[in-house]
Every structure is written in structure tokens, then in C-alpha cells.
């Protein structure tokens, strides 16, 4: 009887030690998603929007539990010309750091756009039955903490000319300091 | 010298500690693994049911659009009526957040923004939250409608429950944009109710 009691006491002590240790050495809280400046859309897109005669709408953002999406939109009166830029700022989570999370988010963005990602970027023309109407790109920023997606469309006769501006925006927004405003 | 009885008691305590630690460790590992699974597999891919298909394509909207037939599931999470030159398709796009369920609104909004960005076809009107959809100022929709109401129309709707719904209509025989817009508004309202 005394042996059984001591054995049970030992089991309780052992379990207590493991639970206590797991609570004491709990992993550090996840890094929060970076914040995008409230002037991001204006600062980053005004020049390109003006070049295509697009009016910039107010910046919008959606806050998730850890991730944050900032969306910019500029459009022509008919909607034919349109510039959409989204910045998905990701946070790390248990078992996955921001680089892994942003890589997964890039895959999703690229699947929506069409081209497969190569070297943390995907880009390509926006095609319709009539021909090329625009260009799109998605990429992970240099600090791995955000996925930026750009879609610029225009009329059929100017669709191919959008590629240069999408490339320029890609290079400009790849710098994390721009995203932090 | 050690008393054999005492040695046995120490051994019992030791075995108890080891067993207790092992049991607690296994239980904690199981709990952590299930948390992880929730965090990394948050996907909205619930299949569309036949009932949802019927509700999402109400007869009134079909009549307005001049497409009168029974809608059916395609097996690709879509509800469809196909009559050759008059087609209608309502689909709910799957969403993958890559994070926790609480981040799904972010993933849904991003999918919606990209879908709207890719809507232009170089010849049709593209509108963001058009008033003729009669959904209120905070609704999230974008629509592409052909000039004079004849051709392919496409509407994306982000519902309050964070579902991204795509509605596509091909109609070559409508008398103008009025019936097309009215029919599309009916389909969008129905989708809001279903998803």
C-alpha cells in the first residue's frame, strides 16, 4: 500500500514537473505584422495613377488576428483603367516564421494572378479573349514580412504598356522602408 | 547498507515520476499538435450543396435574365445553367488563409481585391460597389457588364461571412442593360443570403 501511494506521488510529481516546465519555457509571443503608413497609397501610387489618369480612392485596411491587409485602388471613370495594390503584412505563428508564411501567401496570390512564383516573385500580363489588357505582379518584400500584389489594367490598345509601370512599382515597393512609410 | 525494502520504495517513486512525466509530455504534445493543425489548415472549401445552388439562383432573377432552366451543380463547387448562348454560373471560391481562422477576413479581402483588379476586359464597364446592385454603401462588390447588356457579365461579392462569390452571366438576347442589372442584383442578393 505504501509503495502504491509513493508510486502515485512520484507520477504526480513527474507530471507536475513537465507541465510546469512547459509553462515556464513557453515560446516567445509571435512578431506582430508590420504596420503600413496611412499615407502609403498616396505616397506610393500617386505618380503612376496620374500617368494613367486614374483617381485614387481612400486607403482601406483589414485587420485579422495577426495579419493585416492594406488595399489601394485607383480607377478611371469607366473602370477600364484600374490600379490595385494590396499589401498583406504577415506575422509569424507557432511553428512558422514570417518567411514561411509570406511564401505561402505569395503562392496564393500568384495562383490568383496566373503565373507561378520564381524567386519570391511572379509577374505576367493580364489577358482576355481580345488580347492583353494589363500587367500584374506579386512579390515578397526584402524583409519577408509582406506580400505585395499589383494589378494595372487599361484599354486593349494600351494594355501592353502597363508592364513598365508594374515593374517600376515592384522595384520601388520591394524596399521595406516604403512599406513602413 | 541499503535496506532492500527502501530501495524498492525509491524505485517505485522513480518509476512513478518517469511514467507521470511521460504521460504529461504526451498529453501536451497532442494538444499542441491539434492547435497547430487548426492554425495551418484553415481553408474555406465547403462544397456547395444542391439546396444552396437552388437558393442562390432564384427563379425571379433567372426570369429577368431570360434564362429559364433548372440550375445544377457542376461538381466543381459551382452552380450552373447552360443553354448555349445563355449561361449562368454562381461559384464560391475556396479561400486559404495560411494562418488562423481569425485571419480569414484578411485572406478573403485580398482574394476579392485581386479578383476585382483582374475584372477588366478592355471593352466592358467595370464598377466598384455599383449602386444598381442595391446592397448598401458598405457592401463589397465589383461588376463588369457589357455595353448594351449583351455579352458576358461578371460580379464578385465578398459576403459578411467572408465568402468570395463569383457570378457570371452570358446573355446575348436582352433588350438592354436594365434587365441585366436587375437580374444580377437578384443573384447577388440571393448569394448574400446563402453565403
Describe the structure.
In chain A, strands 1, 2, 3, 4, 5, 6 and 7 form a 7-stranded antiparallel β-sheet that branches. The model of chain A has no long low-confidence stretch (mean pLDDT 85). By secondary structure, chain A is of the alpha+beta class. Chain A contains 5 helices and 7 strands. Chain A has helices spanning 2-24, 40-51, 98-113, 162-173, 176-179, and strands at residues 55-56, 60-63, 68-75, 82-89, 121-128, 131-140, 146-153. In chain A, strand 2 (60-63) and strand 3 (68-75) form a beta hairpin. Chain B has 195 residues and is α+β, with helices and mostly antiparallel strands. Chain B has one domain (9-194). Chain B has 5 helices and 9 strands; from the N terminus they run H-E-H-H-E-E-E-E-H-E-E-E-E-H. In chain B, the strands form 2 sheets. Chain B has a 7-stranded antiparallel β-sheet with strand order 2-3-4-9-8-7-6. In chain B, helix 3 (59-65) runs antiparallel to helix 5 (177-194). The longest helix of chain B is centred in the N-terminal third of the chain and has 37 residues, at 4-40. The termini of chain B are far apart. The chains are: A alpha+beta (181), B alpha+beta (195).
Q: In percent, how much strand structure appears in the residues of chain A?
A: 25-35%
- Count the DSSP helices of chain B: 5
Low-confidence stretches of chain B: 31-41
Which series of helices and strands of chain A comes N to C? HHEEEEHEEEHH
Q: List how many beta strands of chain A DSSP finds.
A: 7
Q: Biggest sheet of chain B, strands in spatial order?
A: 2-3-4-9-8-7-6
Biggest sheet character of chain B: 7 strands, antiparallel
Largest sheet of chain A: 7 strands, antiparallel
Mean pLDDT of chain A: 85
User: How many separate domains of chain B?
Assistant: 1
Amino acid at each position: 500500500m505504501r509503495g502504491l501511494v509513493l508510486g502515485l506521488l512520484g507520477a504526480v510529481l513527474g507530471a507536475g514537473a513537465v507541465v510546469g516546465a512547459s509553462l515556464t519555457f513557453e515560446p516567445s509571443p509571435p512578431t506582430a505584422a508590420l504596420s503600413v503608413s496611412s499615407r502609403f497609397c498616396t505616397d506610393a501610387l500617386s505618380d503612376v495613377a496620374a500617368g494613367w489618369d486614374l483617381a485614387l480612392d481612400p486607403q482601406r485596411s483589414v485587420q485579422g488576428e495577426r495579419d493585416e491587409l492594406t488595399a489601394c485602388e485607383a480607377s478611371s471613370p469607366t473602370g477600364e483603367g484600374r490600379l490595385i495594390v494590396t499589401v498583406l503584412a504577415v506575422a509569424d505563428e507557432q511553428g512558422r516564421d514570417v518567411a514561411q508564411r509570406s511564401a505561402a501567401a505569395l503562392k496564393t496570390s500568384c495562383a490568383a494572378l496566373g503565373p507561378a512564383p520564381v524567386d519570391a516573385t511572379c509577374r505576367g500580363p493580364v489577358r482576355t479573349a481580345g488580347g492583353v489588357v494589363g500587367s500584374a505582379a506579386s512579390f515578397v518584400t526584402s524583409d519577408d514580412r509582406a506580400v505585395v500584389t499589383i494589378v494595372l489594367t487599361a484599354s486593349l490598345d494600351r494594355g501592353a504598356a502597363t508592364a513598365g509601370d508594374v515593374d517600376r512599382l515592384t522595384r520601388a515597393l520591394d524596399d521595406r522602408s516604403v512599406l513602413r512609410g | 547498507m541499503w535496506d532492500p525494502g527502501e530501495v524498492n520504495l525509491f524505485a517505485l517513486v522513480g518509476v512513478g515520476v518517469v511514467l507521470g512525466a511521460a504521460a504529461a509530455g504526451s498529453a501536451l504534445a497532442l494538444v499542441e499538435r491539434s492547435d497547430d493543425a487548426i492554425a495551418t489548415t484553415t481553408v474555406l472549401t465547403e462544397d456547395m450543396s444542391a439546396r444552396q445552388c437552388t437558393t442562390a439562383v432564384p427563379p425571379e432573377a433567372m426570369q429577368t435574365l431570360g434564362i429559364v432552366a433548372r440550375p445544377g451543380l457542376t461538381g466543381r463547387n459551382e452552380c450552373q445553367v447552360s443553354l448555349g448562348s445563355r449561361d449562368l454560373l454562381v461559384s464560391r471560391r475556396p479561400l486559404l488563409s495560411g494562418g488562423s481562422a481569425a485571419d480569414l477576413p484578411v485572406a478573403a479581402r485580398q482574394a476579392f481585391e485581386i479578383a476585382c483588379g483582374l475584372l477588366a476586359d478592355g471593352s466592358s464597364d467595370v464598377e466598384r460597389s455599383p449602386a444598381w446592385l442595391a446592397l448598401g454603401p458598405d457592401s463589397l462588390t465589383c461588376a463588369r457588364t457589357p455595353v448594351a447588356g449583351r455579352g458576358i457579365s461578371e460580379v464578385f461579392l465578398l459576403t459578411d461571412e467572408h465568402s468570395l462569390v463569383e457570378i457570371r452571366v452570358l446573355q446575348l438576347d436582352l433588350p438592354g442593360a436594365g434587365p441585366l442589372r436587375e437580374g444580377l442584383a437578384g443573384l447577388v442578393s440571393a448569394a448574400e443570403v446563402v453565403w
